## 1
Amino acid sequence: MEGERLAKFLARAGVASRRDSERLIAAGRVVLNGAVVSHPAVLVGANDQVAVDGRPVAPKRTRLWLYHKPAGLVTTARDPEDRPTVFANLPKDLPRVISVGRLDINTEGLLLLTNDGELARFLEHPAQEFARTYRVRVNGRVDDSLIANLGRPQTIDGIRYRPAETAIDHRQGANCWLTITLREGKNREIKRLLARYDLRVTRLIRTGYGPFRLDSLARGAVAPAPVAPVSALRRRYAEHRGKTPNRSSAGYPPSSAAGRRSFSPSERP
């Protein structure tokens, strides 16, 4: 039988991450052709009907958006501390989306949003080495030796970090602005790397992710990803999946998408 594993299908449809899709299935919330499914490895064919919590999961075009995240928002659907979240502050007319990775509550700048969980996973995966570029304001002494040290692999508290491409932009008294590019983006990576050299991060802005740039996108605004970099991404994503890009998909990687933000337990892979 040809088809796609159910958990993967749900992730690619933007319902939830693959892991959270497995939880939805285990909880008996997923129905395939009228029957409740209990195993995530069940295959879904082109003519099969899938629903979650009684809501059909219908194939739609994969989409990608750029979001200028303000400081003060948590990148999660629900916060146990009841802090403001990214997803509660998105435009109401935006389809249900998940984020490509996270930004810390006080980190600003570019956050990619998509309706395709598998695309998000592809963009996040360290093996793809998509560059994450940040402007960083630090307090403390910055010199050429710091740049050289950050350009080497680091191990901090047993966690290994790849070299960080770093450049000094300009100084403002005791503060200094840096541009730092990462190829992996582990949790709080920049703050941990700089803390090792007694530098305190006082502002952190992500300005780029892979081929996408924040540029002049207003704080809190959402915009469709530009066609040219999306087209390049579509080809790379299709190669990753072992398929020929579908030219009818208007520059986006072919996939499925769900409706509005309605399924739980997670908005993020």
Note: The chain is about 20% helix and 30% strand.
## 2
Amino acid sequence: MSIFSSGTKYKHQSDLKGLARTPENEALQHKVLSLIFDDYYLKRNVVLKGGAFLNVVYNSPRSSKNDLDFSVLSSVDSDKITAGLERISKKLSRENPEITHRAINGHHFSFRIDGTEVLSVQIQLNRPILRKTEDVWIMLPGISSFTITAISINEQLAEKIDALNKRQDEGKKLNDIHDIYFLIKKGATFDVALIVAKLNLGQQSDPKKAIEEMLLNNLTETELTRLWDSHTRTFLQLPKLGVISDAILDAWIKSSNAKK
């Protein structure tokens, strides 16, 4: 049966405070996620992370309907990763003829509904998980409950810090800042050694100072403050960026001092 004809009620855009998430996109994202963790090879080797992780595991208000991002547990066979993605893609298309896929490369697939690209699935082979993962039992609309392997909340925070450091797009920086704040509110703490590893700061004479300067530079950009007040704050009903920045920096200071 098609995932779009089951009568399942999915959140519409208006239900998410103006954020773009269509019923079809959400249904497809959930179905692909369930197929990945039902595949005999993929479920033993991939770890969910990123925006979808925040949505599915922690119910983040920021929509991440367009992608599913994964890391790997350890050294994996890239050909077997590709074969796994091909298996789930063919199974999905057999059940839902309107869904097609395109392999961007062996570990990055794009899914389309009636020719329109709606979901990117990427497994990062060069970003192995560095901390213990979490097995999370989840229930999604229209899908039987299943267990996923998810990144730890502290490692996700470290990856978001790394993403913020590398971003050029200011809109995506706002997303990173929101996610960092959200993770801290959910109990994440800054694992200094982990952040140093993610940012490749091992050769720095004072890596903690480098991290703090990077956070200050990104959290105090004038243009980001303007964009935050005109866009992100309106949709997500968040405090002003200055309040968010202070909370992030306070959490950093507490965590980094505790690791002395």
Note: The chain is about 50% helix and 20% strand.
